[in-house]
Amino acid sequence: MTDNQRIHFILKSIQDIGLPVGATYLSKKHAIPPATIGRTLAVLEEKGLIKKISNKGRVITDKGRNYLIQEELRNAKAKNADKLVQLVSKADKNTLLEILQTRKLLEGHTAELACHNAEDSEIDELEHLMLEYLHLIRSGELGSHIDLEIHLTIAKMSRNRTIYQILKIMLTGDNVYTKFSFVSDKLKHIQVKQHDAIIQAIRERSPEKARESMETHLDQVISDLEKYFLDDIE
């Protein structure tokens, strides 16, 4: 058990007991050495997460309760992120299509938000990435890492941190983005035009046009993916 885990465990125990509790009781209840319990209680008290009630023992404070709530939320987020990573690691057709449909919902919105929130310098950087992507395509490469960076940059420009983190997990897990790039490899010239349209709409600060351009682009990737699996079956 790490120090942070022990702090959480002891604090949760004090909260659950609901009465002033001492180091001896906690040591016997959880089979943890008294010295370790003593150090943990000292840390909790120093942080203001518990307080001493005369000689009766210690109780949790409002700050301590809030700490536990925040810890539970962080743990829940971590578990959900793990589940998302596990989902992304599946390379079957249905999973990839689900990811693309989710991307269409999220990235259409990030393209809209980018029109409102992006700095001009960020749009300049986006156009620079586009030139780099075009160079790689003309050189016969997939350019998937730059393609990924373009989409994540737009998400970051939206200033919606939650969507950005979700997309980052979805698109970087198990090289899933390379899979999307691979199935659309024969239509890269179309993808270049679609990326240009998205960036131009953001440059023009046209939210509706940016959303439509992003959705058109992802519809194309969905179509490419369905055709790829159909050809593979045939």
UniProtKB/TrEMBL annotation:
Statement: the UniProt record of this protein carries the keyword Heme: no
Gene Ontology molecular function, alphabetical: DNA binding
Superkingdom of origin organism: Bacteria
Annotated keywords: DNA-binding, Transcription, Transcription regulation
Domain GntR C-terminal: 98-220
Pfam families assigned to the protein according to its UniProt record, in alphabetical order: FCD, WHD_RNase_R
Protein name, entry field: DNA-binding transcriptional regulator, FadR family
Organism from which the protein derives: Faecalicatena contorta
